[in-house]
Amino acid sequence: MPQLAASLCLIALLLAGATGAHADGLEQARRGFAQRIYEDSKADINTEAPQPMLRAVVVLRVRLNEFGHWAAEVMRENDVEPELTRKALASVEHLGVASDVSASLAEQLHREGFVEVWLFQNDGRFALKTLALPQRGL
User: Fold this and answer.
1) 3 state DSSP class of 131
2) Is 2 part of any domain?
3) What is the pLDDT of residues 66-77, one digit of tens each?
4) Do the Cβ atoms of 96 and 36 come closer than 8 Å?
5) CB of 105 closer than 8 Å to CB of 27
């Protein structure tokens, strides 16, 4: 009996810890996604205020695919420099599995997703609108 109680207590602690790590809302998931992009693409990230005239703006709809991996589709791209669109898409594809979201949020992210904007500087570095500082004045 004491062993059963200890096992149940351990399971409860594990479940409580697991649910605490899940994003519980779409906005929180978007911020978590943006932070993961920043961590994963450090060399390509602009952490300063974006310049007044950006080199390019790429808009992607980000979703979870049927395997739970981050995926994106282009909503607005830079026709002049398609490599910047490819760079934005690659930053999403490189993330892989979204392990920090609950099952219900994962379903919502699969169905609806969210829109994120890549703000490209002249040097090719980017910021995501969700985490970007306000743009520098003219």
Assistant:
1) coil
2) no
3) 999 999 999 999
4) no
5) no
Determine the Cα–Cα distance for residues 104 and 108; give it in Å rounded to an integer: 6
Domain count along the chain = 1
- Round to whole Å and give the CA distance between 124 and 120: 6
pLDDT category at 138 given cuts 50, 70, 90 is low
- Token look-up 């049927």 returns 66
CATH number for the domain that contains residue 62? 3.30.1150
Cut 0.70: pTM above it? yes
Residue found under tokens 């808009």:
59
- 11 vs 9: CA distance, rounded Å: 5
Per residue in 88-99, pLDDT (tens digit) is 999 999 998 887
